[in-house]
Every structure is written in structure tokens, then in C-alpha cells.
């Protein structure tokens, strides 16, 4: 199978390219910003026509949630119109269009994990732009797969956000900065390596449709930080605060955790509990003491 990965230098794209290459039965086209401009339909058409893929995984996204409130045009240009241009190219080539979406398409009022059949209702510009991208992909390309993910952390870090949450917390802890984390917002932390494994399974299965791909379980940002510090053996105190004490420009869902009703045994095996995935991530980044390693993937 010929697979093009748009946004191949990001957290998810990096892990997906590595996994597909390692699998050995894919011809992989890793398309970074240098090879493809995801806001330019001409660039998209040219790059994908050259690759002539059987499937295109669109990992490119405007992910700065607060910035999207001030820059809605940029968010929609990438997350919606860019997705439309990729979907049009896929439709012309009869390729599968894989669009990576987000838990922020939900408003959090359910107060329990969202499944694929739940109705989206985004409450910030970023979430609206991603939901628009979902609709445009579905309406434009006959062969589509939408994968919603949440709170990604990966080896490559997020170029759009300047790293990831785990590394930010550990860096602050090691310098003795006070740690104050929100304890009333729940989500599903997701290791990009595991999400990429699930995507590879879906590609291999020739799957289509809407899937929630997040590590099993859910937690607050406070609990996530506490577990990371505990795993690496740091005893810093962490103050639990409410979201009202930490105002941000964009509204966040109170509970945007994800579950899936569509995972078979192979997919469930990819998406282990989030704390197990976090242990593996921290070991592979060299944060654990030598006697704790290795942690098996």
C-alpha cells in the first residue's frame, strides 16, 4: 500500500512514518511543510499527484487552541479548507482520506467519556474548525476515515505548541518551579506511538468511518502530572486548582475524555491504559532510573 503522510514531522506524523516504514509492506511518502503547503490547493494537488497514494493520512493541523480564538481564519484555513483540499485530491485519485480530529469537537457536558455516536458540539474556534474539517472530508471523499484523538504526547513533541505537556511539567519540576495544575478538567492522554499503531491497524484492515483512538482511561491534568512525577521519582508538590483559577482565552470542555465502541482486539491492544503508555514514553525519553528500564512496548 502506498501511504502519504501530510504533516509527517509532527508528533503523530513522526511516529506513524516510523511505524509504517518498520512494518515493511508500505511505500511511505513523508510530506513535511517543505514538500506540501496544506493551505494551498495547488501545492496539495501537486504533491499528492506525484505520490499517487492509496491512502493519505492528514496530520497537518493548527493546534494552538487559544491562538485560534484570535486567528480563526488561520485555524479554518488549515483545519477545514486544507482538509477539504486534501479530500478533493483523494477523491480524484480514489484514495482513502484519513483525517485526524480531536476530542474538542465535544462540549464536555456529558460528564462521561464520549463515543463515536455522540453528537459533537464544540465550544471553541479550534473545535469548530476541526468539526468543519470532519464534515468536509465526509462530504467530499467517498473513501474516508476520521480518527479523533486527545491530549497527544510523543517523542517528537508538538511543533505547533513547542513540545508537550509531560516535558513541560518535568522541566518545571527539575528547576523547582511551583506546579499548579487544573483538577476539574478530564481528558484521555494519548501516546502518539500507540495512536499510530492503531492507525496502522486500520490501514491494514482497509477500514473506513469514524473512530475514537485514545489510550484507555481518563484523568485530570493534575492527575496526569502527578503520575508523571511519580514514575520518574520526583517528589515535587503539586497544587490542585480549578479551571476558574487558571483562565484561558478559549473555553475548554470539562470532560472531553474519549472511548470507542468500535475497537476490535487488535485495536484495543494498541490503545493500552494511559498510565502504562506514559511509563513507556518516560523510559524511552530517558527519564527513568536505569534499574527501571526497559519498559516494553
Give the gist of this structure.
The protein has 297 residues and is an alpha/beta fold. The protein has helices at residues 11-23, 41-51, 65-70, 72-93, 125-140, 165-174, 192-204, 221-232, 265-270, 274-284; strands at residues 2-6, 27-31, 55-58, 96-102, 144-149, 152-153, 179-182, 186-187, 190-191, 209-212, 219-220, 238-241. Helix 6 (165-174) crosses helix 8.
Account of the protein in words:
With 297 residues, the chain is of the alpha/beta class. It contains 10 helices and 12 strands. A 6-stranded parallel β-sheet has the order 2-1-3-4-5-10, with helices on both faces. Helix 1 (11-23) packs across helix 7 and helix 8 packs across helix 10 (274-284). The longest helix has 22 residues, at 72-93. The relative contact order is 0.15.
The CATH topology of the domain at 2-160 and 190-218 and 254-272 comes to Rossmann fold
List SSEs in N-to-C order.
Answer: EHEHEHHEHEEHEEEHEEHEHH
Structural class category: alpha/beta
Q: So what's the CATH class of the domain at 2-160 and 190-218 and 254-272?
A: Alpha Beta
Strand order of the largest sheet: 2-1-3-4-5-10
- Determine the number of helices (DSSP H or I, runs of at least 4 residues): 10
Radius of gyration: 19 Å
Uncertain segments: 290-297
- Helical residue percent band: 40-55%
Shape: globular
Largest sheet geometry? 6 strands, parallel
Strand content: 15-25%
What name goes with the CATH superfamily of the domain at 2-160 and 190-218 and 254-272? NAD(P)-binding Rossmann-like Domain
Determine the N-to-C terminus distance. Answer: 25 Å
Count of strand segments: 12
Integer average pLDDT: 94
Report the CATH architecture of the domain at 2-160 and 190-218 and 254-272. 3-Layer(aba) Sandwich
Amino acid at each position: 500500500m502506498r501511504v502519504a503522510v501530510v504533516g509527517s514531522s509532527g508528533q503523530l506524523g513522526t511516529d506513524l512514518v516510523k511505524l509504517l516504514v518498520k512494518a515493511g509492506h508500505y511505500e511511505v511518502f513523508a510530506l513535511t511543510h517543505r514538500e506540501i503547503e496544506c493551505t494551498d490547493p495547488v501545492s496539495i494537488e501537486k504533491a499528492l499527484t506525484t505520490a499517487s497514494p492509496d491512502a493519505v493520512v492528514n496530520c497537518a493541523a493548527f493546534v494552538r487552541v487559544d491562538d485560534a480564538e484570535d486567528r480563526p481564519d488561520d485555524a479554518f484555513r488549515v483545519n477545514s479548507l486544507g482538509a477539504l483540499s486534501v479530500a478533493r485530491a483523494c477523491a480524484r485519485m480514489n484514495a482513502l482520506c484519513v483525517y485526524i480530529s480531536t476530542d474538542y469537537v465535544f462540549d464536555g457536558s456529558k460528564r462521561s467519556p464520549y463515543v463515536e455516536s455522540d453528537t459533537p458540539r464544540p465550544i471553541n474556534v479550534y473545535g469548530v474548525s476541526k468539526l468543519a474539517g470532519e464534515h468536509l472530508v465526509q462530504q467530499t471523499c467517498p473513501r474516508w476515515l476520521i480518527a479523533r484523538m486527545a491530549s497527544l504526547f510523543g517523542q517528537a513533541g508538538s511543533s505547533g505548541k513547542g513540545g508537550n505537556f509531560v516535558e513541560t511539567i518535568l522541566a518545571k519540576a527539575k528547576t523547582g518551579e511551583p506546579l499548579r495544575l487544573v483538577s476539574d478538567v478530564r481528558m484521555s492522554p494519548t501516546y502518539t506511538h500507540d495512536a499510530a499503531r492503531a492507525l496502522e491497524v486500520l490501514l491494514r484492515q482497509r477500514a473506513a468511518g469514524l473512530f475514537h483512538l485514545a489510550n484507555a482511561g481518563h484523568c485530570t491534568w493534575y492527575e496526569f502530572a502527578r503520575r508523571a512525577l511519580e514514575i520518574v521519582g520526583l517528589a515535587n508538590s503539586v497544587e490542585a486548582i480549578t479551571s476558574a483559577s487558571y483562565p484561558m482565552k478559549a473555553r475548554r470542555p470539562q470532560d472531553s475524555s474519549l472511548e470507542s465502541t468500535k475497537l476490535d482486539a487488535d485495536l484495543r491492544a494498541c490503545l493500552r491504559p494511559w498510565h502504562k503508555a506514559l511509563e513507556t514514553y518516560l523510559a524511552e525519553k530517558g527519564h527513568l532510573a536505569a534499574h527501571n528500564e526497559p519498559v516494553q512496548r
